[in-house]
Amino acid sequence: SLYPHSLRNMDELCASIVRSHRETSQYRVEELQALRWKLFSREEIQTYQNKSVDEMWQHCAIRLTDAVQYVVEFAKHIPGFRMLSQNDQIALLKTGSMEVVLVRMSRFFNTENNTVFFDGKFAGAEVFKSLACGDLITAVFEFAHNMCALKLTEHQIALFSALVLINTDRPCLEDRGRVQRVQKSVELGLTHILHRDNQESLMHKLYQKMAELRSLCSMHMEKLRWFSQRYPLTAHSLFPPLYKELFA
Ligand SMILES: CNC(=O)[C@@H]1CCCN1C(=O)c1ccc(Cl)c(COc2cccc3c(C(F)(F)F)cc(C)nc23)c1Cl
User: Which residues, judged by CB distance below 6 Å to any ligand atom, belong to the binding site of ligand 1?
Assistant: First the structure.
């Protein structure tokens, strides 16, 4: 029957997505486990809180752009992604890359003290006070906390990230049919490994997370617009070019 043939393809598909995730995930989970109790001192927190709004936004934008570049690399190795048209690849990345950054952030989150890896140590939400967008940071922390609580394996995070990215109901796709075929194969890959891990119950939780991601990222985009209107100079001159390309 075809099954062994498609299963082999399915294993190959999952293996290439997991490999790409591992090669583009910026930090290995084991590395961050070792750092999880490296916290900022009171003085260091004070330094971050004394930064001006645009200084702190610029500081974060550099890191976010860095993280987005790793997600672009990850996307390029998802089987079928590079067969899509350039415009469709950009359309998927324009909306999906920040969502994958958020999924990946959950790997750098410590649920015991609600801190996230930032600038080499683990930071609480108070470190980001000078951004003047407490609701965004609260939402980022809450999402990272809830994602972390699912205790996904690296394989599950890899396939989930690919599914977040290859999303047919993104606006302005040229060839939705082709994106649908790639999405279907990634979906099968995720169900395949959840079945293997005996965790099929995670599937509907992951679909709920995808819905949360979408509302979270539309909030981010409007914060980004607020910031670039409030501080046009910083937004237009200092944000690394990729950031402008993807989010401007
Ligand atoms: C290892 N570190 C990491 O994984 C994260 C992801 C990329 C780099 N990075 C951090 O250093 C980091 C970790 C935690 C937090 Cl809360 C932050 C600050 O996050 C943000 C500040 C400003 C705007 C942000 C926006 C907005 F609005 F631009 F879309 C959106 C997201 C999601 N995060 C924003 C950052 Cl920049």
Answer: 57, 60, 63-64, 67, 98, 101-102, 104-105, 108, 116-118, 128, 131, 136-137, 140, 220, 223-224
